[in-house]
Amino acid sequence: MVSVHQCFDPLKVCIVGRSYPPEFYSGIGNNKVRSSMERVAIETEEDYQKLINKLEEFDVEVLRLDISDNVEDYQNIEGVVNCPPPMCPRDFSAQIGDTFYMPGKNYGENFDVMDLYFSMMNSNPSWDKGEQQENREKVLAKYFEDLLQPGRPLSQEAALESFRNREGMDCFALKFLQGIDREELEKVIIASEKNTIGSNYKFPDNKKFYAWTTVEKWLKDHDVPIVYDQYINSASCWRLGEDLFFNYVNILNKLNEESFLKKWRRLFPDYRVHGIDIPGHGDGAMHPVKEGLIIANRSFDYYKDFYPDWEVVTVESGWNKVKPFYNMKSKNQGRWWIKGEEDNEDLIDYIHTWLDHWVTYVEETVFDVNVLPIDEQNCIVNGYNKNVFDAFDRHGVTPHIINFRHRYFWDGGLHCITSDISRVGERKSFW
Questions:
Q1: Please, what is the end-to-end C-alpha distance for the chain in angstroms?
Q2: Residues 308, 279: contact at Cβ < 8 Å?
Q3: Where are the chain's structural domains?
Q4: What predicted TM-score, i.e. pTM, was given to this entire model?
Q5: What is the chain's alpha carbon radius of gyration, rounded to the nearest angstrom?
Q6: How many angstroms separate the CA atoms of 188 and 368, rounded?
Q7: Is residue 6 within 8 Å of 425, Cβ to Cβ?
Q8: Which CATH number fits domain 11-104+204-236+281-423: 3.30.70.60, 3.30.300.30, 3.75.10.10, 3.40.50.720?
Q9: How far apart are CA 279 and CA 299, in angstroms?
């Protein structure tokens, strides 16, 4: 049976992400930008191949996400490339027990939710037929704008104008609504609650191209049940036998917290489901390497209540060490290349500073807890850390260093750029 019960059981099948090839950047007119991005693309795939080779040494079957050779498949109607490559499958998928959760072909277009919206708006007896459409649009626009700009005070009229001028805004926001409990959705809308979803995520998906075709076919060929729900992902969920720990991922109010917990407990009635409120994805804060050993950032200590007898090795957060780089990245809004930005000096400086300074710095100084256990005796890591390696030695774990050089450029560590489909082991209780 294809299943995952513990995140450190022997790994048998694993998805590995994919970035754009160097040819993708051939149309960039600015030679400095083009050559730099071609170098990043080449080195990224080199590191992917090193990871794949290591996995295959342990007889792990590797599946790659698909990528289109046609740059137009990643462009909007204005010809702007606005879809990042499918580099981090874990951010959008999870094998929990014998079921795989993943984004579907209509990802971002949850028509079931849209129909619910419409039925709710149409059921209001205070609106006549002419008012229904107008008010429906206003409520939708207001809610979507709250999703995209959490906490921003905005009138219905202003939100409606923004809604009509923002291409794809409805689809962009709707993909998050599938994460919320259906029974709570009406209360959320009617109450006009703000900050209900939290941060937005980007994903390489459009009507032209579907990155998960190969994975989907493999799952169907092996009779693995599939649920199309991107809000269940193992970047924000620790699978530890009978216990599932879900990270709220920047969910900002109590209503949404309760709603998500309600959904998760309904989906996983045979598990003990716990909610954790920490910024970002959980695999950047903590990772169980084997039974009895956890590596974690110093600021994260939630595990103490559940696993008091396990050894915990803490490391300095890599994000803190590269904060100046992220300040620079924020200045150009994280755009590594967008059509029309070829001569953006902030962008050019960002790319070249990364290549000239930060790559080497990160290689030599930053150890991420974003690691990938192959089994309880072997773990893939990005680099050396004395305290972590000493703990590995005490627990009989062999580290295997695969340096994903551009992980901070792309925002994806070794755990992020993979997603485990099958690990061998029975479900246990550790707590």
A1: 25
A2: no
A3: 11-104+204-236+281-423, 111-190
A4: 0.78
A5: 22
A6: 37
A7: yes
A8: 3.75.10.10
A9: 11
For 218, 258, 340, 380, the CA distances from 55, given in Å and listed in that order, are: 18, 39, 39, 9
Q: Residue 79 has which token pair?
A: 């010809």
pLDDT in tens, the chain (431 residues): 899 999 999 999 999 999 989 988 887 778 888 888 899 999 999 999 999 999 999 999 999 999 988 877 776 555 566 567 889 999 889 999 999 988 776 544 444 444 545 554 454 444 454 555 555 556 555 555 555 554 445 566 666 666 555 544 444 444 445 555 555 555 545 443 332 332 223 333 445 678 899 999 999 999 999 887 666 889 989 999 999 998 875 444 444 566 678 778 888 999 999 888 776 778 888 899 999 999 988 766 666 677 788 999 988 877 677 777 767 776 665 555 556 666 677 777 778 788 887 887 777 778 889 999 999 999 999 999 999 999 999 999 999 999 999 988 888 899 999 999 999 999 999 87
